[in-house]
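fwd from M.: "can u put these together and see what the complex looks like"

so here's what she sent:
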Amino acid sequence: MALTGVLRPGFVQLRVLDIDEALAHYRDRLGLELVGTEADGRVYLRGYDEFDRHSVILRPADEPGIDVLGFKVASEEALDEFGQRIEKAGLGTTVVPAGEQPGLGRRIRFVVPTGHQIDLYSSIEQSADAPGALNPDVWKSEPRGMRAQRFDHCLLYGPDIDDVTRVFVDVLDFSVTERIDTPDGTLAVWLSCSNKAHDIAFVNHEQPGKFHHAAFFLESWSDIGHAADVIARYDVARDIGPTRHGITRGQTIYFFDPSGNRNEVFSGGYTYYPDNPIRLWSADQAAKGIFYYEKELNDRFLAVVT
Amino acid sequence: MFRIEIQGHNFAFDCGPDNNVLLASRAAGGRILPLGCRGGGCGVCRVRILSGSAQLKPMSRAHVSVQEEGQGYALACRVYPLSDICMEPAAAKARAVKLDPKPIAERK
């Protein structure tokens, strides 16, 4: 299908307690490329297989968590159109000027019902180290660490999950791909703006603005195994995995960065089309949906957020 | 090696200055302090140090404010002992993430 609106999650800005430890984790363990450090202390990184200048921004702060999640849209015209639709939906927007992050164009920023800041943008510089586009090799420099190819998505925690679903579906043209239902209402929802099983997901949670994880895509299940070796060898704080999700079929490992922000590396997942039915999960089968092999929920996985 | 006691739980263990008391307690078989993010971010391992001294690595101020730190509160995963220590678990109801002991199926 033609992607004419939101293309993909483009960047995530995370708060970290110690910038040097965080940089070492994202650069050496995940294998992201360091793009640069700015005067305000923010550190910029990108996955080795990404064309755009950067996709992960680390900001030193005294509380970890997520500052903002940015989605890239197909054109400046689409950006303006979304801005109008967001305003019409009753959500205020602010404009973040071009250059607030180096190499990044103007952004339209709004806050969704779960309390999270979302940016939309269309323009960003290409990386000087972008993957080849003329008779390209599979990579230019040998991938390092867990070999993260790209920043892929976030799972966010907050209240009003049905309202945030309506925003993403009605205003941003996402589709619901999967949902966990309970007798008390929606527990969790997965949404896509592409062929991916999800481009964003939310879990219903009383505290607004909370961060469950940022996920990075690996090429194959074999890379997941290698990532597990890296996690064990360097004493990275592992949460759960290697395992597979029933929801999205992603093959996955979860672990924490040195500030307690959760990361995921994953591979696989099914190809989604908007004519697919919504995959529904009942609360009593949620364990199978989240941990397909273990079929048991993990308290830490559910409850720990930053 | 320093001796670390979790008051009220009849549990004590050894911890060197290059290790944090959360991981040391888990390695000694203790399950009183939950294992969360292990990076000072989530708050589940919140404790109050009653006696002794320690080097504290950076902790999320959402879970231990500067004032609370002065009162002995800390995240166990960031406590690197400099002496014998006596501490007690001290989950902050309002802000710390709580790991629920009830099975998922029984929760509201």
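replying to her w this: The first helix of chain A runs from residue 19 to 29.
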